[in-house]
Each structure stands twice: as structure tokens, then as C-alpha cells.
Amino acid sequence: MRILVTGGAGYVGSFVVRRLLTEGHEVTVVDSLVNSLRPTAPDIRFHHVDVRDRTTLCDVITASRPEAVVHCAGLKSVGQSVELPWLYYDVNVAGTLNVLAAARAAETEHFVFSSSCSVYGSPQISPVGEDAPTLPQSPYASTKLAAEHAIEACAAAQDMTAVHLRYFNAAGASADGSHGELVTRYNTQILPLACMAALGAGPPLRVFGKDYPTRDGTAVRDYVHVEDLARAHVAALGAGGRRPTGTFNLGRGEGTSIGELLAALEHIAGQKIPVVEAPRRKGDPVQTWADTFAAEEGLKWTAQLDLADIVQSAWRWHSSPNGRLTAVG
């Protein structure tokens, strides 16, 4: 299948591209390289394009005529979105509209969107199903939900099928330690920051709140391996003429507290992680994890890698020169 991946040089997008190439698909990547590095795989058709550049984007997509688009491009820092909401709406919403316009011109048949569990805000009940109220509590989350709405409307108008993948906390790296998440100045993901703190390559880790009504007082999240997320994107493309549609939550379907995550990392690293306790952040949910029934039924997908796989692969990556020295953005 001819597939175009926006943001295909980014964290999740690059793993999606690797998986697609492994399965024999013809892959074109567009990426602005704002917070990523240029892909080097010889089988990738790469175009250095910002999704806000509608004219160039349309030229690239119509020339490649993809049967499907996997839209991973976007900014993802909650904190930065509060500081620069106009930038987030420009990239994540206007950029998505540009991708949709180009897909229409190219007569693309299927659209897969990398969305986020942040659209649920602070859910009162876990596990969180796809029918839970959407109450975004940051500009970032609002842009993800707005993009979903735009995709739904445009897909219906142009006879294109669409899938929204709302993933929970993406984490981990390749098993061989050769590929993982870059640490940028806007990175707020706890596992990369914890690894850098343990390595002495970053400041002590700030843990926001140790007084939650949870088993150890720290917030509970659903960490899902990026390799599993890549498999889900491929599953969302369909096979044998069957194309899934709709919205799917992606997670391991179980909660892990911040304390448990750090304990697992300390066990693997063989050392204590320097931690600084900080007050709770406004809008942070107490605990949240995914109800994965819809993904199991509609995508025939379940997460295969566990917390130990996630933590061990992240530690191996960040302990390598590439994982420590490729800070960009």
C-alpha cells in the first residue's frame, strides 16, 4: 500500500514508519524536523515540509498519491501549549486541515489520526472508554479534539474512511537501544526525564504531587510501549479490504503509579533517581487508564509489551550516546 506519514521523523511517527517498511509498504514521510532528526532509511521518500505550508504539502501529497495518510505531525507539550496557544492551533488544527485538503486532492481513501487521551481531561472513572466525556483541559488537548472533529467532517464530505487513535502515555524505545524518544527542552514525559536524571545528564526529577488518593500517593497512568502503538497504527490501516473506522483508545489497560514506574527504573538502572517533590499541577488527573475493548474488537490489537519492557528499553536508549546527546527543539 502507498502510505504517507506526516510527522514520520518524530517519536511515534518514526516507529510507525519502521513498522510499515518492515511489512513491505511504500512509505512517504513529510516532517518539519522541528523536534526530530532527518530519517536515514534508504527506503523512505522524505520531504522536509511543515504542515502549515499548504501549497508545498499539497504538491507532495498529490504527487505521491497515497492510498492512506497516517497523520502523526503535531506539537505535544501541554505546558508549551499554555504559553503559545496560537502556535498549537496553527500547527495542530490548521495543519490538519491542510493535510485533509491535500488528501482530498490526492483522492486518498483512508486517514489515520494520532490523537490523545488528553481529550478526556480528568476522567472521574477508569478504565476510560471511548464514550467518556471529552473535557480537554489544555490548549494542546483542545487542538487534538478539534482536529478529530475536522477529520470526521471532511472524511464524511469526501467519502474517506477515518480512524482516531487516542493513545495514553507513549513510552519506551527499540529493543536494541538504537531508536527512541529525543529529549527536548519542552519534553515533559516522565520516563525520559527520569532516565536523564539517573544518568546525571539532567536535573533531579520533579514529581508533581505525592498526596493523591492512590496506593502510594502518586498519580496513576497507563504506559504503553511505542512499538505497540506502531502496531496499532498499522492495524488501523486495515488488511484484506477491511478498513476500520471510528475512535480507539490505546493503552495496556492497567494503571501504574509514578512511584511504581520509578521503582522499576531504579531496579533496572541499579541506582536511586534524584527526585524533587513539587505541588500537584492543575488539571492533572488522579488516575487514568484505558478501556481497550474497542481496540481489541475493532483493530484486533492488544499491547504485547509490559512495563518492564518499556522501562528497560528506555533506559538502554537513554544510556546510549544517541539517547543522551540528541536534544533538539
UniProtKB/TrEMBL annotation:
Protein name: UDP-glucose 4-epimerase
Keywords: Carbohydrate metabolism, Isomerase, NAD
Lineage, uppermost ranks: Bacteria, Bacillati, Actinomycetota, Actinomycetes, Mycobacteriales
Cofactor: NAD(+)
Pathway stated in the Swiss-Prot or TrEMBL entry: Carbohydrate metabolism; galactose metabolism
Biological process (GO), any one: galactose catabolic process via UDP-galactose, Leloir pathway
Record-level Gene Ontology MF annotations: UDP-glucose 4-epimerase activity
Annotated catalysed reactions: UDP-alpha-D-glucose = UDP-alpha-D-galactose
Native species: Nocardia nova SH22a
